[in-house]
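Before drawing any conclusions, I needed to go through one protein's amino acid sequence and its C-alpha cells, quoted below without any editing.
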Amino acid sequence: MPILQSLRSWARRVLRDVMMLWFARRHPDTPFTARALCYVAAAYALSPIDLIPDFIPVLGLLDDALLLPLLVWLAVRLLPMHVVAECRAQADVWMAQRGERPRSVVGAGLIVVVWIVLAWIAWRWAASLWQ
C-alpha cells in the first residue's frame, strides 16, 4: 500500500512542521508577520477543539486536510531558512523525547470565540428576516 504509506508520511511531516511553527513563534529571528501566522497555525493545529467538527461530513475533515497544510506552507514560506532548520531540529527532538504534541488552550478559546461570534451573526440575521 504505497498510497497509504505516503499519506502517513505526509501527515507526520505536517505534524512535525506544526511543532516547528510552535518553536518558531518564539524564535528571535522570526519576523512579526511570520510570528503571528505561526501562532495562529500552531494554536489551531494544537487546539483540542476543531473549527469545523470532524463529525460533519466532508467539511469536518477538509479543514484538517486543506486549511492546516495551507497555513503551515504559508508560515514556512515567510520564515527565514535558518529558523526553519533550527526549529525543525527542535521539533524532531521534542517528538522523539515526548512522543506527543502539546495542547493549546488559547487555540481552543479562540475557536470557541469564533463559534460564538458566528452564532451571534446567524441570530442577528435570522432576527432581521423575521421582522
